[in-house]
From TrEMBL, chain A:
This is Trafficking protein particle complex subunit. Part of the multisubunit TRAPP (transport protein particle) complex. Belongs to the TRAPP small subunits family. BET3 subfamily. It comes from Durio zibethinus (Durian). It is found in: Endoplasmic reticulum; Golgi apparatus, cis-Golgi network. InterPro entries: NO_sig/Golgi_transp_ligand-bd, TRAPP-I_su5, TRAPP_component.
Automatic annotation (TrEMBL), chain B:
Belongs to the TRAPP small subunits family. BET3 subfamily. Pfam families: TRAPP (PF04051). InterPro entries: Bet3 (IPR016721), NO_sig/Golgi_transp_ligand-bd (IPR024096), TRAPP_component (IPR007194). It comes from Durio zibethinus (Durian). This is Trafficking protein particle complex subunit. The keyword Coiled coil does not apply. Homodimer. PANTHER family: TRAFFICKING PROTEIN PARTICLE COMPLEX SUBUNIT 3. One of its GO terms (biological process) is Golgi vesicle transport. May play a role in vesicular transport from endoplasmic reticulum to Golgi. CDD domains: TRAPPC3_bet3. Keywords: Endoplasmic reticulum, ER-Golgi transport, Golgi apparatus, Transport.
Amino acid sequence: MKMIGVGKIKQYCNVLDKSLSKGKQEVSLSAFAFLFSELVQYNQTQVDNIAELERRLEDAGYAVGARVLELLCHRDKGNRRETRLLGILSFVHSTVWKVLFGKVADSLEKGTEHDDEYMISEKELLVNKFISIPKDMGTFNCGAFVAGIVRGVLDSAGFPAVVTAHFVPMEGQQRPRTTILIKFAEEVLRREARLG
Amino acid sequence: MPPAAPRSGDAIFASVERVNAELFTLTYGAIVRQLLTDLEEVEEVNKQLDQMGYNIGIRLIDEFLAKSNVSRCVDFKETAEVIAKVGFKMFLGVTASVTNWDADGTCCSIVLDDNPLVDFVELPDTCQGLYYCNILSGVIRGALEMVSMKTEVTWIRDMLRGDDAYELQVKLLNQVPEEYPYKDDE
């Protein structure tokens, strides 16, 4: 007996019911590069100056960072969250970097001049790989997107900070390296001191 | 020297540099969110996503042709197969299949097995008209236009809207013969 006119009932699958992927799936680097390039180009049409462009890229990155923290804490860290400064910095430098960029960051350093500053450096940020900045855009760095990701992770983990991306020319290298500068809010340092 | 044989999607994907799909997924999510905030109208966001896809497609085709060594496709049927088996695989790491050919062979459906754009995504009630993956339709349209095929690409099924799969309809409108930019001297 044939079923006639069986309508398809729309199944709205609740995203929380689906199992979480293991995070091993990959896409080509060029697919990401194309997408990132469109993100930057679209934002260029929405702003009047470099500072605004950097801010928009940072905001886009912030949303990514907040979600990455939730995802990683749940999947890889068994719902544990770092509560100490060095712990969260190490988490960003190693775990977050490894998941997003396939490797741990090149270096993590403490600022020499200020107590509240730390720097994560990378010889060539993935997002900058296919990007060249025209001279008239001065110090603009698409790494602002990554700075936003870091700020998103830190903020959501309870470590508010101002995070910016800077080009640092290196001797003997044609392309400057990128340093993500993290300046923690006062409350973070006070809490850290209290925790001993 | 004989031309190199066309490479399979798997082989190319294994040979290119790859990144974590989650970075890709989350970045795409950030883009859609930005567009929704800026443009507010869901229809406008659909159009913008398609335009962004088009911009990507017209550049992506060069990389595709360079890496895949496909020879000129004999007909549209071959074109669709190549997009599904090689194109999607080498860029997004997923396979797709081609179905629902019409009588002329000018219209078909590409069904995605998997879609890295939509991991972790749920459409809120306020965005029910949104074609979240509309960037893909722009990419295909842009890429095909660069190889002289004018197409119309639309979504037939979208899992974020409650369907059971992701299905794109690709309709060949016409083939524009390549024009030389210079007129031959008379």
